[in-house]
Amino acid sequence: IKRFKGQYIHSREYKSPEKFRGKKIAVVGIGNSGADLAIELSHVAAQVFLSTRRGAWIWSRVWDYGMPMDTVLSTRFNTVLNKFYPTFLINRLGENRLNARFNHDIYGLLPQHSFLSHQVTFGDDLPNRLISGRVLIKPNVREFTETSAIFEDGTEEDLDVVVFATGYTFSFPFLENDSAVLDSQCSMFKFVFPPQLEKPTLAIIGILQPLGATIPTSELQSRWAVRVFR
């Protein structure tokens, strides 16, 4: 990337699409940050290229009859069913359901992984941006030149900006990497309490990716932590 003479940033530095108006932009990564950025930038950019190594199953926040997806799927009844249905069958049902909305293979997004084996990517408006040509799916970047990106399929695209939506590394430097607090995997009981501590005096909130929204889940974690502390 250091050969590239244009602008390149990580998704955490992105604030507003306005300064990218009229640019040719490559977004690298198709997690939630990558999908959201590609959709938003496509409204102002000359062209957006969305680069993905392995494709993704694209979920919609709006489910049948206009209901929020998480309220429809996250029910006690479905939880019980999932305990009895074999994983391969749940995968097949889920993949057929998402492909019924838009064919992932035709759009160049068919993943190498199954429906349940990787994190969820939401992108309600992504099919619209793809079918209009405002976002173009590309494979992994093989190399950068001074003015372009060369992708693994041999195609080359001139670029003004590269946005790396390549994820985050969790770090707790204020804990001094103390194994008595957190192990090397940063594992927490119920994603909240470090199990190595002698007493439950530390709670970590929001380090999870639920099926639905993070904020109400974090709210419940916070209520539980307060009760434990009290």
Automatic annotation (TrEMBL):
InterPro entries: FAD/NAD-bd_sf, Flavin_mOase, Flavin_mOase-like, Flavin_mOase_1, FMO-like. It is a single-pass membrane protein. Its cofactor is FAD. It catalyses: hypotaurine + NADH + O2 + H(+) = taurine + NAD(+) + H2O; N,N-dimethylaniline + NADPH + O2 + H(+) = N,N-dimethylaniline N-oxide + NADP(+) + H2O; hypotaurine + NADPH + O2 + H(+) = taurine + NADP(+) + H2O; trimethylamine + NADPH + O2 = trimethylamine N-oxide + NADP(+) + H2O. It comes from the Eukaryota. It is found in: Endoplasmic reticulum membrane. Keywords: Endoplasmic reticulum, FAD, Flavoprotein, Membrane, Monooxygenase, NADP, Oxidoreductase, Transmembrane, Transmembrane helix. Pfam families: FMO-like (PF00743). Its EC number is 1.-.-.-. PANTHER family: DIMETHYLANILINE MONOOXYGENASE. Broad spectrum monooxygenase that catalyzes the oxygenation of a wide variety of nitrogen- and sulfur-containing compounds including xenobiotics. Catalyzes the S-oxygenation of hypotaurine to produce taurine, an organic osmolyte involved in cell volume regulation as well as a variety of cytoprotective and developmental processes. Belongs to the FMO family. This is Flavin-containing monooxygenase. It comes from Ceratotherium simum simum (Southern white rhinoceros).
